[in-house]
Design a protein that fits this description.
By secondary structure, the chain is of the alpha/beta class. 32% of the residues lie in helices and 21% in strands. It has a single domain, classed as Rossmann fold (3-Layer(aba) Sandwich). The strands form two sheets. A five-stranded parallel β-sheet has the order 5-4-6-7-8, sandwiched between helices. A three-stranded mixed β-sheet has the order 1-2-3, with no helix packed on it. It is globular.
Length: 182
């Protein structure tokens, strides 16, 4: 099996999931460290679909799962059983969860300067305009609906993962100016 490490800050071309062959896998890194993905959803089937979509893309970065907002915060603050949890580079966050819901979890993450730079993709079945506006106001980086069709769901996750880990440029992590076109 071929394993390749991709750093979006270098000249490596952005691989789409369609470009990964059966025998290669990629690890997406930032500052020489693999990027960890955190899934926050009370629905185990949705977490499985997201994990499968990322795996289908041949991305072998670590994917961690929690089932509610309280667990997500414990993971991010490395408390309790998450004392050694890695800092995620991407979070998929559901809205409707028991206890601490996704919008309150989002608010708490984005209001903490030590966590606010982590991209958060709201991945939810809630398609109300009010929730979308609230998520945007609270700092969600993306708002994606969970399609009812499993194939479309996988496609949505693939596009989001590819964008946030391979395409998006951050102020602190980006291509050097000399490698950019003007």
């Amino acid at each position: 099996m071929i394993s390749e490490s991709i750093n979006p800050d270098q000249d490596a071309p952005a691989l789409s999931c369609a470009q990964a062959t059966r025998d290669e896998s990629i690890t997406i890194t930032r500052d020489e460290q693999p990027i960890t993905i955190l899934l926050v959803d009370d629905d185990a089937d949705c977490r499985l679909l997201i994990r499968d979509a990322i795996s289908e893309c041949k991305v072998n970065n670590e994917v961690h799962e929690v089932s509610n907002g309280q667990q997500a915060l414990a993971f991010l603050y490395q408390t309790g059983c998450y004392a050694h949890a890695p800092r995620p580079g991407l979070i998929y966050l559901d809205i409707e969860m028991p206890g601490l819901d996704g919008l309150e979890t989002l608010r708490r993450i984005k209001s903490d300067p030590t966590l606010s730079d982590i991209p958060i993709v709201m991945m939810t079945g809630v398609c109300g305009e009010q929730e979308m506006q609230t998520a945007a106001r609270l700092g969600a980086n993306s708002y994606t609906l969970k399609p009812a069709n499993a194939e479309q769901f996988v496609s949505t996750v693939l596009a989001s993962t590819n964008y946030w880990l391979m395409v998006h440029q951050y102020p602190q992590h980006h291509l050097p100016q000399e490698r950019c076109r003007r």
